[in-house]
Amino acid sequence: MELRTSWRRGPAKSRGPILVSVTDFTGTARDLPRIYRAGLELRRAWPDLEGAVGLWLWTRPLQRRSGSVSIWTTEADLHRFVAWPPHVAIMRRFRHRGRIRAHTWEVDHFDPGQIWARAHQLLDAQPEAPSHTESR
């Protein structure tokens, strides 16, 4: 079972090539609600994040997993978000609570169906190692 939030639009437009980022956190059943709430906190700021086209949060509670599918205008915009103090604080708070994987790739245009199809392939693969991966 997978649950997904509605699309949260950012300030950037989705014209031209865009960067897709999929994060996947696997933790304990006890930590999952707190981690998901932390994601919702970040989601509230989305309309004000430079370079953010939008995002969905997702969770697979029976697998103790949650994460995001976020869309950015450039890789620099994604890196700026990763270094954003509220995001850094959340990552530090939960870094030893589970395993995080991240994947990024570029697409020519915004097509939610195609983006989710690829995201599901990545999420269903569940490699044993490493704790962080990036694919292009």
UniProtKB/TrEMBL annotation:
Superkingdom as given in the UniProt entry: Bacteria
Record-given protein name: DUF3291 domain-containing protein
